[in-house]
Amino acid sequence: MPLILPSNSISDLGYEVDNSLRFDGASNDYLSKTPASDGNLTTMTFSLWIKRSKLGTDQKFISTNYASSSLFYMRFNTSDQLQLIGYSGGGATLHVNKITNRVFRDTSAWYHLVVTLDSTDATAEDRCKIFINGEIETSFNASSNPSLNRTFVWNKSSHVNGIGHYAYDGSSHFYGYMSEFCFIDGTALDATSFGEFDADSGIWKPIDVSGLTFGTNGFYLPFENSGALGQDDSGNGNNWTVNNLTSIDQTTDTPTNNFATFNRLIKTGNDIKTLANGNTSITASSSSAWGTLYSTIPVNTGKWYCEIKIDGINSGDPNNFIFGVKDIDQINHSSNNQVADTTNGYGYRGVTGKKENNGTQTTYGNSYTTGDIVGIALDLDNHKLYFSKNGTFQNSGDPTSGATGTGSAFDLTTDKYYVFGTSSYYTQEQYSINFGNPPYSISSGNSDGNGYGNFEYAVPSGYYALNTKNLAEYG
User: Which of 24, 46, 167, 228 lies 20 to 30 Å (CA to CA) from residue 245?
Assistant: First the structure.
């Protein structure tokens, strides 16, 4: 099985992005704004960073409402292609239509999208340009360029502009993370105005955009103000109305520090869990059967910590939770595979409080139930694994004991790439995983030794949140 690694694992990115906004379509969350007056309707540039969390559905992340028989939107279609479309006359006149051949199915990585429209350009192919991670897109399933001097309805005073859903009818919500959203009114820019390739790694990374000229209706949304998530930091004061988004939806999972989540592309079993909150929560199940999910970032060195909060549990058999880690090479997509049913799979089980390896359970610690938080401390320098319940490590565990492994749940097989995993049964069982980027309120607030993450309980000394900044230094 190939490793699915983050796209931007470098330790010194220069300019740092601090925040993103986590959208979950099931929560009907979006931003909206109606321009006070028409901006430049022929020339404009969009730049934004996106990390997807749901695939195979129509997700319009930039759109206008349907007024005067005209509209405009960008979306990921049901085939996970990027599409840009604008039309008038109820679709009779197509202003622009671009559909990439490329598909966007990596839910572990951040994508940078730049779309430039300039219908005043004499060259038809230069009137609409799309850049993905710094490179211009040239392969399209459909490619219709704007006519000369064509006007668009985005940036028009009579149209509601939407971010995160379809402003026409409130459908087709975006699922995922969004950061560094820039709109340039009246200027056609390419990707180098918003990012650059790292000299050492060759990875595309953000740059400081505060010095750009944004134009009358232009805006810059860094999502940094938790009390005003739609605040425009361009200096124009073009703030956006926030709908159903709260401070919990403001995250530190960003293009310059990519946090682990559940991996939508690695899941096993007959019960396909319903993921939410940027692939950090399980909200429901499709049937009463086993289902297992794993994290996006595999590791084979370093010390890592995460927490899992139990949001709901089946009273008939609460034993059907197993939290732990597994060798990524032992994940079997074609079977009803659980996290602790192989030689290099290790877990801590629900109501019995037992530990499990290779399908065998033995006495270990206390049971856990709704409202409890299970901590997992993975020491791959000494090949030990520890579990806590509500901040207390089980079996008198001491994650800082090093090679002695005091109270360790397991001695792990060496030279393996491990992912965090969860297995559960029944439709009622719900939980959220926190790799330092929680989808729920934290009452205390604890970061790791590098200042990353937000955890309910103290992170053991020497252990770190699983993100690309820490991975570059300790992984």
Answer: 46
* Residue intervals in the chain for CATH 2.60.120.920: 262-474
Q: Are 339 and 356 in contact (CB under 8 A)?
A: no
pLDDT tens across 350-409, in order? 878 999 999 999 999 999 888 999 999 999 999 999 999 999 999 999 999 999 999 999
Name residue 95's amino acid.
H
DSSP 404-461: G-TT-SEEPPSS--EEEEEEE-STT-EEEEESSS-SS--SS-B--TTS---BSSPPPT
Note the pLDDT tens digit of each residue in 7-66. Answer: 444 545 689 999 999 999 989 999 999 999 999 999 999 999 999 999 999 999 999 999
In sequence order, what DSSP letters do the residues of 306-368 get, joined into one string? Answer: EEEEEEE--TT-TT-EEEEEEEGGG--TTTT--TTSSTTEEEEETTT--EEETTEEE--S---
Q: Is the Cβ–Cβ distance between 85 and 97 less than 8 Å?
A: yes
The residues, any chain, with a CB within 8 Å of residue 63's CB and separated by 6 or more, are 71, 72, 73, 74, 75, 161, 162, 165, 166, 167, 168, 172
Among the listed residues 225, 245, 254, the one whose alpha carbon sits nearest the alpha carbon of residue 18: 254
Q: What is the C-alpha separation between 71 and 167, in angstroms, rounded?
A: 9
- The model's pTM: 0.94
Q: How many other β-carbons are positioned within 10 Å of the β-carbon of residue 177?
A: 27
Give CA–CA dist 6/189, Å, rounded.
27
The answer to whether residues 390 and 458 touch, using CB atoms and an 8 Å cutoff, is no
For 262-474, give the CATH class.
mainly beta
